[in-house]
Write a structure and sequence with these properties.
The complex is a heterodimer of chains A (310) and B (246). By secondary structure, chain A is α/β, with parallel strands linked by helices. Helices cover 37% and strands 28% of the residues of chain A. Chain A folds into three domains: 145 residues, 3-Layer(aba) Sandwich (Rossmann fold), CATH 3.40.50.300; 66 residues, no CATH class; 61 residues, Alpha-Beta Plaits (2-Layer Sandwich), CATH 3.30.70.860. In chain A, the strands form three sheets. A six-stranded mixed beta sheet of chain A has the order 6-7-8-3-9-10, with helices on both faces. A four-stranded antiparallel beta sheet of chain A has the order 2-1-4-5. In chain A, strand 1 and strand 2 form a beta hairpin. Chain A is globular. Chain B contains ten helices and no strands. In chain B, helix 2 runs antiparallel to helix 3, helix 3 runs antiparallel to helix 7 and helix 9 packs antiparallel against helix 10. With 246 residues, chain B is mainly α. Classes of the chains: A alpha/beta (310), B mainly alpha (246). At the A-B interface, helix 3 and helix 4 of A face helix 1 and helix 4 of B.
Chain lengths: 310, 246
């Protein structure tokens, strides 16, 4: 129990079934206080279900979830007082202006009026939304709406901030600005739990990453650990065309790990020396050498096939 | 609960003029055209002029309609497209706070509609101090149909679902519950049917209090309304919870 209290989130063998279909299959996970934790997974992997369990919208079929030592099934209102959530769809109240949205939300948290007003004004200026203060939220751009949703999630000074695909659909400028802001929050020791499809986002922000698929965790670690463990240092992409079998036998002969993808082979090298000795033998074939990255890990673990929405 | 009510009150303040406009104009049209105009050609019902007879019926059907509509269409939008309820669920408030807050708000709008009718009625010389006694009964009726609305939004697949409850229940109830004719004068089957539903119990009680003084039967009518409120709120609780927590 002492350990659970010291963790930001403790997920213990959680299962979730909808009409007999397993969405989460006995998943366990620990998120430490003050860390930025990333959940990566293809569509339908169970990320959103897991996030919704943490904020109480989904009740586990079995298993236990603790947030800051409190059980999500029995103490969810207490938990929510200490938590901020930016949902995928923003969920702004379209009947009201930016400032009114923040004041209303503060009211749901029973934050006294004067404090709510000064905190809202502060967050609007933090989020560069002061000029849009009295603007109806319907008229805000996608980036502004997302920033307002982030401001809203920070109203109660949360110890844990949950971000469900926070930069999906935003332009690169807006994304950069938001990443920068999250880095500031990390310095203030706010625990951040983030889901994303952008490997760059996870690599940049997250201290640790879990790759989730089919309702299970495939691996957990820092970005560098995962890349080193599953891929190595460098990747050579060879466009093999109709000589695929020849190349596969070459690669297998050298005992190298590779991935066969349509007309290409991705070959993984633990060191650049290994890579150097391999490419010396390549003639008249197009190839590309690059550093191994989290994207390679993700595709290797979760597979290369296209998934449905969900 | 009160926080959810307050959100709607703030929105109401923004659209105050439109709301008040129809709250006053509608009863003016009904009381004027039906009660005063058409009513002059109608012989007395239960010893009352048609205008006098119709007035309590209009009060009750207004209470029912306004609460029902306020609790269905806007709340279905908040549940689905606007995601307002999902967002509130991210705060320490619970689904029960939302449910009860919305039932209370729907009933508040119903009572505002009732005030519109009362205001207009005083122009037709219908003002009475017994208004103070009928208001709690009308409010109870508003709560009943507001709770019913919350059941409907929890069952609805899309906006068209409400056509079933509106055309299949609300409109027929406004016609058979003693609004336009005496329940004593209709076939027994329809009388029983009318008493099976809450509206006629409210209409009988409100009409009685306005014109006839106290009767022990009122307590039975009120009890029926209370039972309806408890049962519908219980069902709404079960169904609405499933919409927000899975």
């Amino acid at each position: 129990m002492e350990k659970i209290k010291s963790l930001a989130v403790s997920i213990q063998n959680v299962r979730k079934e909808y009409a007999g279909i397993s969405v989460l299959k006995g998943l366990s996970l620990e998120i430490r206080q003050g860390e930025c934790f990333g959940l990566l997974g293809p569509n339908g992997a169970g990320k959103s279900t897991l996030m919704k369990m943490i904020h109480g919208h989904v009740i586990p079929t079995s298993g236990e979830l603790y947030v800051m030592g409190l059980n999500t099934q029995f103490q969810i209102s207490e938990i929510k007082k200490k938590m901020g959530v930016v949902p995928q769809e923003d969920g702004l109240d379209t009947d009201f202006s930016s400032l009114e949205n923040l004041l209303l939300y503060s009211n749901y948290f029973r934050i006294p009026k004067d404090i709510a007003l000064s905190r809202s004004e502060f967050l609007l200026s933090e989020m560069k939304l002061l000029e849009q203060k009295h603007q109806h939220v319907e008229t805000l751009s996608g980036g502004m709406k997302r920033r307002l949703a982030i401001a809203r999630a920070l109203l109660n000074n949360p110890q844990l901030l949950i971000l469900d695909e926070p930069t999906t659909g935003l332009d690169p400028q807006a994304r950069l600005w938001i990443w920068n802001y999250f880095e500031k929050l990390k310095l203030q020791k706010t625990t951040i739990l983030i889901t994303t499809h952008y490997m760059e986002e996870a690599e940049k922000l997250c201290d640790r990453i879990a790759i989730v698929d089919h309702g299970q965790i495939l691996d957990i670690g820092t970005s560098a650990e995962l890349v080193q463990k599953h891929i190595g240092q460098e990747v050579v992409e060879i466009t093999v065309g109709n000589e695929k079998n020849y190349w596969i036998s070459q690669v297998q002969g050298k005992n190298l790990e590779f991935q066969d993808y349509e007309n290409k082979l991705f070959i993984f090298f633990k060191t650049s020396d290994d890579r150097q000795s391999f490419i010396q033998n390549i003639q008249n074939t197009h190839y590309l050498v690059r550093s191994a990255n989290l994207n390679d890990v993700f595709l290797k673990l979760a597979g290369y096939q296209i998934r449905g929405e969900g | 609960m009160i926080h959810v009510w307050f959100r709607n009150f703030l929105f109401f303040k923004k659209t105050f003029f439109v709301s008040i406009f129809w709250t006053v104009i509608e009863p003016l049209m009904y009381l004027g055209a039906l009660g005063y105009g058409f009513g002059r050609y109608v012989p007395p019902i239960e010893g009352l002029s048609f205008l006098d007879f119709y007035f309590p019926g209009l009060l009750c059907s207004t209470a029912m309609m306004v609460s029902y509509f306020e609790s269905t269409y806007p709340n279905y939008t908040k549940l689905t497209y606007q995601k307002t309820f999902s967002t509130i669920m991210l705060t320490p408030l619970t689904y029960k706070d939302i449910l009860l807050g919305e039932i209370l708000w729907g009933a508040t709008k119903g009572i505002i509609g009732v005030f519109g009718v009362l205001l207009i009625s005083s122009f037709f010389g219908l003002f009475s101090w017994s208004y103070l006694l009928i208001l709690p009964i009308l409010f109870l009726l508003c709560l009943v149909f507001s709770a019913f609305g919350m059941i409907m939004i929890s069952l609805a697949k899309n906006y068209d679902t409400f056509i079933f409850s509106t055309s299949g229940l609300i409109i027929p109830l406004s016609l058979i519950s003693g609004t336009y004719f005496s329940l004593k004068d209709i076939p027994e089957f329809f009388r029983w049917l009318a008493y099976l539903f809450p509206l006629s119990h409210a209409t009988q009680t409100v009409r009685g209090i306005l014109y006839r003084g106290f009767d022990g039967m009122y307590l039975v009518h009120i009890l029926v309304l209370v039972i309806y409120l408890v049962v519908l709120t219980y069902l709404a609780d079960k169904l609405f919870k499933k919409k927000l927590i899975s």
